[in-house]
Amino acid sequence: MRILLFTGKGGVGKSTVAAATGALAADAGRRTLVLSTDAAHSLADAYGVSVGSEPEQVVPDLFVHQVDAQRRFEESWAEIQGYLMSVLEVAGVDPVAAEELTVIPGAEEVLALLELRIHALSDDWDAIVVDCAPTAETLRLLALPEALGWYMTRVFPVERRVVRALKPVLTRAAGVPMPEDDVFGAVERLHAELDQVRTLLTGQSSGVRLVLTPEQVVLAEARRSFTTLSLYGYRVDGVVANRVFPDTDGDPWRAGWVQSQADVLREATESFAGLPIWLSEYRPTEPVGLSELRELGRALYGDGDPLDVRRSEEPLRITRSPDGAVLRLRLPFVGREDVDLARDGDDLVVTVASYRRLLTLPAGLARRRVAGARVDGGELQVRFVGDGGER
Question: Which runs of consecutive H residues, i.e. helices, occur in the chain?
Fold first, then answer.
Protein backbone atom coordinates (compact mmCIF):
# COMPACT_ATOMS: atom_id res chain seq x y z
CA MET A 1 0.00 0.00 0.00
CA ARG A 2 1.21 3.49 -0.88
CA ILE A 3 0.83 6.41 1.54
CA LEU A 4 1.42 9.96 0.28
CA LEU A 5 1.26 13.05 2.47
CA PHE A 6 0.86 16.51 0.94
CA THR A 7 1.78 19.55 2.96
CA GLY A 8 2.91 23.13 2.41
CA LYS A 9 2.39 26.68 3.50
CA GLY A 10 -1.26 27.63 3.92
CA GLY A 11 -2.91 28.74 0.70
CA VAL A 12 -0.54 27.07 -1.81
CA GLY A 13 -3.19 24.62 -3.05
CA LYS A 14 -2.09 21.42 -1.33
CA SER A 15 -5.69 20.20 -0.91
CA THR A 16 -6.35 20.61 -4.63
CA VAL A 17 -3.11 18.82 -5.57
CA ALA A 18 -3.87 15.98 -3.13
CA ALA A 19 -7.38 15.65 -4.55
CA ALA A 20 -6.06 15.57 -8.14
CA THR A 21 -3.46 12.93 -7.23
CA GLY A 22 -6.10 10.75 -5.62
CA ALA A 23 -8.40 11.07 -8.64
CA LEU A 24 -5.67 9.88 -11.03
CA ALA A 25 -4.72 6.99 -8.74
CA ALA A 26 -8.35 5.81 -8.70
CA ASP A 27 -8.60 6.16 -12.48
CA ALA A 28 -5.64 3.77 -12.73
CA GLY A 29 -7.67 1.11 -10.88
CA ARG A 30 -6.21 1.60 -7.42
CA ARG A 31 -8.69 1.61 -4.57
CA THR A 32 -7.82 5.05 -3.21
CA LEU A 33 -8.73 6.96 -0.06
CA VAL A 34 -8.12 10.71 0.05
CA LEU A 35 -7.97 11.66 3.71
CA SER A 36 -7.87 15.13 5.28
CA THR A 37 -6.31 15.70 8.70
CA ASP A 38 -6.50 19.48 8.29
CA ALA A 39 -9.00 21.07 10.66
CA ALA A 40 -9.97 23.45 7.82
CA HIS A 41 -11.27 20.68 5.56
CA SER A 42 -11.30 21.55 1.83
CA LEU A 43 -11.61 18.16 0.13
CA ALA A 44 -15.40 18.26 -0.08
CA ASP A 45 -15.16 21.67 -1.77
CA ALA A 46 -12.44 20.44 -4.16
CA TYR A 47 -14.47 17.43 -5.30
CA GLY A 48 -17.72 19.37 -5.24
CA VAL A 49 -19.47 16.66 -3.21
CA SER A 50 -20.94 16.27 0.25
CA VAL A 51 -18.49 14.44 2.51
CA GLY A 52 -19.25 13.14 5.99
CA SER A 53 -17.12 11.84 8.84
CA GLU A 54 -16.91 8.37 7.27
CA PRO A 55 -15.34 7.52 3.88
CA GLU A 56 -17.67 8.58 1.08
CA GLN A 57 -17.46 7.12 -2.43
CA VAL A 58 -17.02 9.74 -5.14
CA VAL A 59 -16.63 7.36 -8.09
CA PRO A 60 -15.57 3.70 -8.27
CA ASP A 61 -12.24 3.22 -6.47
CA LEU A 62 -12.18 6.79 -5.12
CA PHE A 63 -13.25 7.56 -1.55
CA VAL A 64 -12.93 10.75 0.49
CA HIS A 65 -12.75 11.05 4.26
CA GLN A 66 -12.61 14.28 6.23
CA VAL A 67 -11.65 13.11 9.72
CA ASP A 68 -13.97 14.15 12.51
CA ALA A 69 -11.14 15.29 14.78
CA GLN A 70 -13.50 16.14 17.63
CA ARG A 71 -14.92 12.62 17.71
CA ARG A 72 -11.45 11.06 17.55
CA PHE A 73 -10.35 13.41 20.33
CA GLU A 74 -13.23 12.32 22.54
CA GLU A 75 -12.48 8.64 21.91
CA SER A 76 -8.73 8.79 22.54
CA TRP A 77 -8.47 11.59 25.12
CA ALA A 78 -11.61 11.12 27.24
CA GLU A 79 -10.01 9.25 30.16
CA ILE A 80 -7.00 11.54 30.31
CA GLN A 81 -9.18 14.64 30.05
CA GLY A 82 -11.47 13.35 32.79
CA TYR A 83 -8.55 13.01 35.19
CA LEU A 84 -7.17 16.47 34.36
CA MET A 85 -10.61 18.00 34.90
CA SER A 86 -10.86 16.35 38.33
CA VAL A 87 -7.56 17.96 39.30
CA LEU A 88 -8.75 21.39 38.12
CA GLU A 89 -12.07 20.93 39.94
CA VAL A 90 -10.20 20.47 43.24
CA ALA A 91 -8.33 23.68 42.44
CA GLY A 92 -11.68 25.48 42.13
CA VAL A 93 -11.64 25.99 38.36
CA ASP A 94 -15.06 26.39 36.74
CA PRO A 95 -16.06 23.12 34.95
CA VAL A 96 -16.54 24.85 31.59
CA ALA A 97 -13.15 26.55 31.83
CA ALA A 98 -11.59 23.28 33.02
CA GLU A 99 -12.84 21.49 29.91
CA GLU A 100 -11.23 24.15 27.72
CA LEU A 101 -7.95 24.00 29.65
CA THR A 102 -7.65 20.23 29.24
CA VAL A 103 -7.70 20.45 25.43
CA ILE A 104 -4.06 20.61 24.34
CA PRO A 105 -3.60 22.95 21.34
CA GLY A 106 -3.19 20.86 18.20
CA ALA A 107 -4.29 17.64 19.92
CA GLU A 108 -7.24 17.13 17.57
CA GLU A 109 -4.99 17.26 14.50
CA VAL A 110 -2.54 14.85 16.14
CA LEU A 111 -5.28 12.40 17.03
CA ALA A 112 -6.62 12.63 13.50
CA LEU A 113 -3.51 10.68 12.52
CA LEU A 114 -4.96 7.73 14.41
CA GLU A 115 -7.67 7.56 11.76
CA LEU A 116 -4.92 7.15 9.19
CA ARG A 117 -3.55 4.24 11.22
CA ILE A 118 -6.96 2.50 11.23
CA HIS A 119 -7.28 2.82 7.46
CA ALA A 120 -3.69 1.75 6.78
CA LEU A 121 -4.07 -1.41 8.87
CA SER A 122 -7.44 -2.33 7.35
CA ASP A 123 -6.12 -3.61 3.99
CA ASP A 124 -9.08 -1.87 2.34
CA TRP A 125 -6.93 0.47 0.26
CA ASP A 126 -4.21 0.34 -2.37
CA ALA A 127 -3.33 3.98 -1.75
CA ILE A 128 -4.00 6.61 0.90
CA VAL A 129 -3.45 10.23 -0.08
CA VAL A 130 -3.34 12.57 2.92
CA ASP A 131 -4.15 16.27 2.79
CA CYS A 132 -2.21 17.46 5.83
CA ALA A 133 -2.48 20.64 7.85
CA PRO A 134 -0.24 23.57 6.85
CA THR A 135 3.49 23.01 7.32
CA ALA A 136 4.05 24.19 10.90
CA GLU A 137 1.17 22.13 12.28
CA THR A 138 2.23 19.08 10.24
CA LEU A 139 5.79 19.22 11.56
CA ARG A 140 4.63 19.42 15.17
CA LEU A 141 2.21 16.59 14.48
CA LEU A 142 4.84 14.30 12.92
CA ALA A 143 7.36 15.01 15.70
CA LEU A 144 4.99 13.95 18.48
CA PRO A 145 5.17 10.13 18.25
CA GLU A 146 8.94 10.06 18.82
CA ALA A 147 8.82 12.70 21.56
CA LEU A 148 6.07 10.80 23.37
CA GLY A 149 8.12 7.63 22.92
CA TRP A 150 11.02 9.17 24.84
CA TYR A 151 8.69 10.09 27.71
CA MET A 152 7.12 6.62 27.73
CA THR A 153 10.46 4.80 27.97
CA ARG A 154 12.27 7.19 30.33
CA VAL A 155 9.71 8.79 32.65
CA PHE A 156 6.37 7.02 32.43
CA PRO A 157 7.34 3.63 33.97
CA VAL A 158 8.88 5.32 37.03
CA GLU A 159 5.95 7.72 37.40
CA ARG A 160 3.44 4.89 37.24
CA ARG A 161 5.27 2.80 39.83
CA VAL A 162 5.56 5.74 42.23
CA VAL A 163 1.88 6.65 41.96
CA ARG A 164 0.80 3.05 42.43
CA ALA A 165 2.98 2.59 45.53
CA LEU A 166 2.37 5.95 47.20
CA LYS A 167 -1.08 6.89 45.94
CA PRO A 168 -2.79 7.36 49.36
CA VAL A 169 0.12 9.42 50.70
CA LEU A 170 0.43 11.51 47.54
CA THR A 171 -3.30 12.18 47.42
CA ARG A 172 -3.34 13.47 51.00
CA ALA A 173 -0.11 15.44 50.62
CA ALA A 174 -0.93 17.04 47.29
CA GLY A 175 -4.63 17.50 48.03
CA VAL A 176 -5.54 16.40 44.51
CA PRO A 177 -6.56 12.97 43.17
CA MET A 178 -3.80 10.79 41.75
CA PRO A 179 -4.47 9.10 38.38
CA GLU A 180 -6.10 5.69 38.33
CA ASP A 181 -4.73 2.80 36.29
CA ASP A 182 -7.18 3.45 33.46
CA VAL A 183 -5.57 6.86 32.91
CA PHE A 184 -2.13 5.29 32.61
CA GLY A 185 -3.62 2.66 30.32
CA ALA A 186 -5.08 5.34 28.07
CA VAL A 187 -1.68 7.04 27.79
CA GLU A 188 -0.06 3.70 26.94
CA ARG A 189 -2.64 2.99 24.24
CA LEU A 190 -2.23 6.46 22.77
CA HIS A 191 1.54 6.02 22.66
CA ALA A 192 1.33 2.58 21.04
CA GLU A 193 -1.06 3.84 18.37
CA LEU A 194 1.02 6.93 17.57
CA ASP A 195 4.13 4.77 17.43
CA GLN A 196 2.41 2.62 14.79
CA VAL A 197 1.59 5.79 12.85
CA ARG A 198 5.25 6.80 12.87
CA THR A 199 6.31 3.33 11.69
CA LEU A 200 3.83 3.53 8.82
CA LEU A 201 4.82 7.03 7.74
CA THR A 202 8.58 6.42 7.82
CA GLY A 203 8.32 3.15 5.87
CA GLN A 204 9.59 2.60 2.34
CA SER A 205 6.12 2.88 0.80
CA SER A 206 5.37 6.26 2.40
CA GLY A 207 6.47 9.70 1.27
CA VAL A 208 5.86 13.42 1.74
CA ARG A 209 5.35 15.83 -1.12
CA LEU A 210 5.91 19.52 -0.55
CA VAL A 211 3.52 21.86 -2.34
CA LEU A 212 4.71 25.40 -2.99
CA THR A 213 4.00 28.40 -5.16
CA PRO A 214 6.92 30.12 -6.93
CA GLU A 215 7.49 32.79 -4.29
CA GLN A 216 10.62 33.38 -2.25
CA VAL A 217 8.87 33.27 1.12
CA VAL A 218 7.08 30.02 0.24
CA LEU A 219 10.28 28.44 -1.11
CA ALA A 220 12.13 29.36 2.08
CA GLU A 221 9.49 27.59 4.17
CA ALA A 222 9.58 24.54 1.90
CA ARG A 223 13.35 24.30 2.36
CA ARG A 224 12.98 24.46 6.14
CA SER A 225 10.27 21.81 5.98
CA PHE A 226 12.55 19.52 3.99
CA THR A 227 15.23 19.88 6.66
CA THR A 228 12.86 19.23 9.55
CA LEU A 229 11.11 16.28 7.92
CA SER A 230 14.52 14.71 7.28
CA LEU A 231 15.51 15.37 10.89
CA TYR A 232 12.55 13.27 12.07
CA GLY A 233 13.16 10.51 9.54
CA TYR A 234 10.43 11.23 6.97
CA ARG A 235 11.13 10.87 3.24
CA VAL A 236 10.37 13.80 0.94
CA ASP A 237 9.91 12.19 -2.49
CA GLY A 238 8.96 15.19 -4.58
CA VAL A 239 7.94 18.84 -4.85
CA VAL A 240 4.89 20.32 -6.57
CA ALA A 241 5.24 23.89 -7.83
CA ASN A 242 1.66 25.12 -8.14
CA ARG A 243 0.12 28.16 -9.85
CA VAL A 244 2.95 28.77 -12.28
CA PHE A 245 2.15 31.55 -14.77
CA PRO A 246 2.27 30.43 -18.42
CA ASP A 247 4.58 32.29 -20.79
CA THR A 248 3.68 35.93 -21.33
CA ASP A 249 1.78 37.13 -24.40
CA GLY A 250 3.29 40.59 -24.34
CA ASP A 251 1.58 41.91 -21.20
CA PRO A 252 4.41 43.65 -19.29
CA TRP A 253 2.69 43.21 -15.90
CA ARG A 254 2.40 39.45 -16.37
CA ALA A 255 5.87 39.28 -17.92
CA GLY A 256 7.26 40.58 -14.62
CA TRP A 257 5.52 37.79 -12.71
CA VAL A 258 6.65 35.15 -15.19
CA GLN A 259 10.28 36.26 -14.80
CA SER A 260 10.02 36.43 -11.02
CA GLN A 261 8.54 32.94 -10.86
CA ALA A 262 11.18 31.61 -13.26
CA ASP A 263 13.90 32.87 -10.92
CA VAL A 264 12.28 31.13 -7.94
CA LEU A 265 11.78 27.90 -9.90
CA ARG A 266 15.43 27.90 -10.92
CA GLU A 267 16.38 28.26 -7.25
CA ALA A 268 13.94 25.50 -6.30
CA THR A 269 15.51 23.16 -8.87
CA GLU A 270 18.91 23.78 -7.28
CA SER A 271 17.54 23.46 -3.75
CA PHE A 272 15.77 20.14 -4.33
CA ALA A 273 18.33 18.59 -6.64
CA GLY A 274 17.67 14.88 -7.03
CA LEU A 275 13.94 15.22 -6.36
CA PRO A 276 11.29 15.48 -9.06
CA ILE A 277 9.60 18.87 -9.32
CA TRP A 278 6.15 18.76 -10.91
CA LEU A 279 4.81 22.02 -12.34
CA SER A 280 1.16 23.03 -12.40
CA GLU A 281 0.22 26.10 -14.41
CA TYR A 282 -2.06 28.79 -13.04
CA ARG A 283 -5.44 27.78 -14.44
CA PRO A 284 -7.99 30.23 -15.84
CA THR A 285 -10.68 28.82 -13.53
CA GLU A 286 -10.57 27.25 -10.10
CA PRO A 287 -10.18 23.45 -10.39
CA VAL A 288 -13.36 22.27 -8.65
CA GLY A 289 -15.03 18.96 -9.44
CA LEU A 290 -13.71 15.62 -10.58
CA SER A 291 -13.23 16.46 -14.25
CA GLU A 292 -11.24 19.61 -13.45
CA LEU A 293 -9.13 17.74 -10.92
CA ARG A 294 -8.40 14.97 -13.41
CA GLU A 295 -7.30 17.56 -15.95
CA LEU A 296 -5.03 19.22 -13.38
CA GLY A 297 -3.55 15.85 -12.40
CA ARG A 298 -2.80 14.89 -16.02
CA ALA A 299 -1.16 18.26 -16.63
CA LEU A 300 0.87 17.81 -13.45
CA TYR A 301 2.08 14.23 -13.84
CA GLY A 302 1.80 13.74 -17.61
CA ASP A 303 2.02 10.05 -18.47
CA GLY A 304 3.82 9.27 -15.21
CA ASP A 305 2.44 7.34 -12.28
CA PRO A 306 1.21 9.86 -9.65
CA LEU A 307 2.01 7.33 -6.92
CA ASP A 308 5.47 6.49 -8.23
CA VAL A 309 7.76 5.49 -5.36
CA ARG A 310 10.88 7.60 -5.53
CA ARG A 311 13.61 5.55 -3.94
CA SER A 312 15.76 7.82 -1.83
CA GLU A 313 18.52 7.35 0.64
CA GLU A 314 17.47 6.44 4.15
CA PRO A 315 17.26 9.65 6.24
CA LEU A 316 19.20 7.86 9.01
CA ARG A 317 22.01 5.38 8.28
CA ILE A 318 24.81 3.77 10.25
CA THR A 319 28.00 2.67 8.52
CA ARG A 320 30.55 0.54 10.33
CA SER A 321 34.30 0.03 9.98
CA PRO A 322 37.04 -1.73 11.98
CA ASP A 323 37.76 1.60 13.73
CA GLY A 324 34.19 2.30 14.81
CA ALA A 325 30.95 3.54 13.25
CA VAL A 326 29.44 6.67 11.71
CA LEU A 327 25.84 7.73 12.22
CA ARG A 328 24.62 9.69 9.20
CA LEU A 329 21.50 11.85 9.41
CA ARG A 330 20.27 13.66 6.33
CA LEU A 331 19.88 17.40 7.02
CA PRO A 332 19.53 19.31 3.73
CA PHE A 333 20.32 23.06 3.69
CA VAL A 334 22.02 22.87 7.09
CA GLY A 335 25.53 24.01 8.02
CA ARG A 336 27.57 23.13 11.10
CA GLU A 337 26.59 26.40 12.76
CA ASP A 338 22.89 25.43 12.50
CA VAL A 339 23.24 22.16 14.43
CA ASP A 340 23.58 21.64 18.15
CA LEU A 341 24.63 18.15 19.21
CA ALA A 342 24.73 16.61 22.68
CA ARG A 343 25.02 13.17 24.22
CA ASP A 344 22.69 12.21 27.06
CA GLY A 345 23.30 8.63 28.13
CA ASP A 346 22.02 6.38 25.36
CA ASP A 347 20.45 9.34 23.53
CA LEU A 348 21.93 11.63 20.91
CA VAL A 349 20.21 15.03 21.09
CA VAL A 350 20.12 16.81 17.72
CA THR A 351 18.76 20.37 17.59
CA VAL A 352 18.17 22.29 14.37
CA ALA A 353 16.62 25.74 14.82
CA SER A 354 13.57 25.25 17.09
CA TYR A 355 13.27 21.51 16.40
CA ARG A 356 14.90 18.84 18.53
CA ARG A 357 15.15 15.11 18.04
CA LEU A 358 16.25 12.64 20.70
CA LEU A 359 17.81 9.69 18.89
CA THR A 360 17.99 6.61 21.08
CA LEU A 361 21.20 4.93 19.98
CA PRO A 362 21.27 1.22 19.17
CA ALA A 363 23.23 -0.91 21.64
CA GLY A 364 26.28 -1.12 19.37
CA LEU A 365 26.63 2.69 19.36
CA ALA A 366 25.43 3.37 22.89
CA ARG A 367 28.52 1.55 24.21
CA ARG A 368 30.86 3.71 22.18
CA ARG A 369 31.96 7.30 22.73
CA VAL A 370 31.50 10.17 20.29
CA ALA A 371 34.85 11.01 18.70
CA GLY A 372 33.69 13.84 16.48
CA ALA A 373 30.94 15.24 14.29
CA ARG A 374 30.64 17.30 11.15
CA VAL A 375 28.07 18.46 8.61
CA ASP A 376 29.04 17.60 5.06
CA GLY A 377 26.91 17.87 1.92
CA GLY A 378 23.65 18.25 3.82
CA GLU A 379 24.39 15.32 6.11
CA LEU A 380 25.23 15.21 9.81
CA GLN A 381 27.99 12.65 10.41
CA VAL A 382 28.70 11.56 13.99
CA ARG A 383 31.72 9.32 14.50
CA PHE A 384 31.76 6.74 17.30
CA VAL A 385 34.82 4.86 18.52
CA GLY A 386 35.58 2.43 21.32
CA ASP A 387 34.36 -1.01 22.29
CA GLY A 388 30.95 -1.70 20.82
CA GLY A 389 30.91 -5.37 21.73
CA GLU A 390 28.39 -7.10 23.92
CA ARG A 391 28.66 -6.66 27.64
Answer: 14-27, 43-47, 69-90, 95-101, 107-120, 135-154, 156-174, 181-201, 216-231, 252-271, 290-301, 363-366
